[in-house]
Amino acid sequence: MRILTGSYDIDRFLGGGISTGLVWDIFGENGSGKSQFCFTICANLLKTTSEKIIFIDTTGNFRPERIVEILNVEDSNGFLDRIEYIRVFSIFAQFNALEKIDLLNPRLVIVDTATSVIAAESQGAARHLILMKFLHKLAHHAIRNNCAVIITNSIREKISSPEVREMKTSILGNPSYKTGSQIEFMDKSTSISVHIKLRFEIINFDKKIYRMSYAQPFLKHSIFFTINISGISSLN
To answer: CA-CA 20 to 30 A from 167: which of 42, 47, 192, 204?
Structure first.
């Protein structure tokens, strides 16, 4: 089964939509459309099926009113009732939330953001081991329950010399400038357990132009999209 985004071009770019049975990793800088993509997926699944959703929120970014706006229906209560919202504040709670998957048998599970609590409560090698264990459990649930799992993640700057950092600081005022030195946070650990990685980038924040591209498997194809009242839509 594939979960559609509501945009024909984006669905085609994704091979027909978000496939169930897989873990999808969406990473990018803040404001690049990761959460908006998740809200759009939620709204479209709720509107076109009777399936359930589990939304595990580690940062407080969940916005039910945004999902209602994308749904564009007169009565949204019946739709939102099919979202099991879980706010977690600890690693224990984040792992414990996965028990809901077997109980509710959702078609979609979203973890926004997968690394936030883990990074706050652990460090060094332990941090990576905890994340890999969590993602391994998610992959197991995705396959066993035939649900699509979407995690979001941030990016960080590669370590560089003070001279390079000073040079970047002097030119980062240009919103279209890309340093090429940004990588996904804990990227090696996520690569082991997720099936597909999508990178989201801000191309022009003022004009709401963004880009989505494959990072795993690595493909040269990308698609430009925007964010409006109806969620995300393609610019191609």
So the answer is: 204
Domain boundaries, the chain: 2-234
How much is the pTM? 0.88
- Reported as type and span, the H/E element at residue 77 is helix 77-80
63/234 Cα distance (integer angstroms): 22
Give the CATH fold of the 2-234 domain. Rossmann fold (3.40.50)
- Rounded to 5 degrees, φ, ψ at 210 are -130, 165
Q: What is 19-85 written as a DSSP string? A: ETTSEEEEEESTTSSHHHHHHHHHHHHHHH----EEEEESSS---HHHHHHHHT-S--HHHHTTEEE
Question: Is there a contact between 75 and 46 (Cβ–Cβ < 8 Å)?
Answer: no
Predicted confidence (pLDDT) per residue in 110-124, tens digit: 999 999 999 999 999
Residue with tokens 């669905």: 11
64-71 and 34-48 helices cross at what angle (nearest 10)? 50
**pLDDT for the residue 158:** 65
Task: Give tens-digit pLDDT for 190-215.
Answer: 888 899 999 999 999 999 999 999 99
Cis before 217? omega within 30: yes
- Distance, CA of 107 to chain centre: 16
Termini Cα distance of the chain: 25
